[in-house]
What does this fold into?
Amino acid sequence: MNKNEVPEANAASTSNPKNLDIVIYGHSIAAFVSALTIHNTLADQVSLSLILPSDQAHSDILYGGTSSPDAYNLHLAMDISEAELFQQTNSSFSFGTHYQNWTDERFDWVQAFSLPFTSKYGVGFHQVLLKHKQNLQAYLVGAESALHEKFAHPPQNQPASPLSRAEYGYNFDYQNYALFLLNKIKQRKIRLIQSELSEAKVADEHITSLRLNDGSYIEADLFIDCSGTDAKLMSALGVKKRVHSQINFSLLTNENDTQMKPCNIVSGHADSWQSTLYLQNSSQILQAVNVKDTSADNKISANTIASISADIGEKEQAWVGNCVAISLSAAVLEPFSNAPFRLLKLDVERLLVLIPLSNNMRLEQKEYNRRYRLDVQHGRLFNLALADTRHFLQHEHATKNQFLASDDASDTQALLDRKLAQYLHRGLMVSYDYEPFNTEDWVILHFGMQRFPRRLDSLCDNIDNSDVKQHLLQSKNAIAAMVPKMPSCSLYTQKFLNYLKRQS
It folds into this structure.
């Protein structure tokens, strides 16, 4: 048998008729995450193959090298420990994203990860802060730590510690991270086929087989497209994509930069921005320029790792026939937030829940596409809110109808307008079903963008102000006293690595 070939799909079905034959196509982070999670979760129920082209998809730079705080749990689902991640990659810790000189209004704040806010006063914590004209950042230990370049793991079972309310994610080099995941795949019982794709055979909106460059054919019950923005399988099925904008991306590296900050730094505005990422032994800069912005400088330098022009938008459907598109093969959001990584995790989790039990996949397909559209739409809400400065430009006493006036008549913009109007009117946090970003993320965003409601919840009038002031002062002082005592991110990471080395 040719080394690139795998047994026929129905051969696995003969030995175990209950097994679903799944083929993943792609050399990408999404392909490897999908393969590892499916293998670890459904190893006894599926026969899994990964077709691996020679080159990694350049579109992997569109994750921006930043994860969400639930990346830790995603790694556990792949049977990967944090120790392995740090010993075998140059990944680093992150408390969130520091937006500097953001938009033309030059907003500056840390979009920190945080556990749910607690409030003992019967109203939201943000309402209490607004009533007392307090800066939210001073009450976010992750934000204060990032500003001071400090890091430590949040302690467990120590609720009195301010650090216990923080959450953290990771910064990663897309090539380094993908290689790490691929090495994990090679250690598992996953059939690996190293080959290029010549053609996807299609009939009745189903993929019947994939022809590889050596002439062999691969059949399967379910195909998973993880080819990045090329979306080669979905393209063969003729799935249309709604495009909102086209952005040119370039990723540059600075191998001499050993400075570590527990965050990435984003500056600019929605049409031209850059994100600086700090890793264990280097830093990277992702530059993004809208193709319509002819004034922007988009030159390729000697330090450029990769560059790509990407259509920001989403496929009308992510599951067609017997093919599912995961992550960037289905939808692309700009990585000035960590929305792309959040959508990757949601795509994989959604697929695991809806793995079909037979060749009739219509019900699973319908539910998958419904939730996919909501996740993408609501992820895009957050990105749109990061670029929306209408509240800052309009008069303080603008009416709700004036605020809702928008040049963009799309459904997504209408959802955002309702969300912002309710908040600006009386501080109400509106949440839709299947939102990738939680209430805390939105509150931190509103404060960072200096969105302040015209009036507050009437319950605020019944709060004992002296008690509130004392509680707020204690909370803020506890964080202010602790952060300077924390080790620098560089020192903590080095000690963490030394500890892991001694334990191994």
User: Anything to note?
Assistant: The first strand starts at residue 20 and ends at 25. DSSP finds 16 helices and 19 strands in the chain.
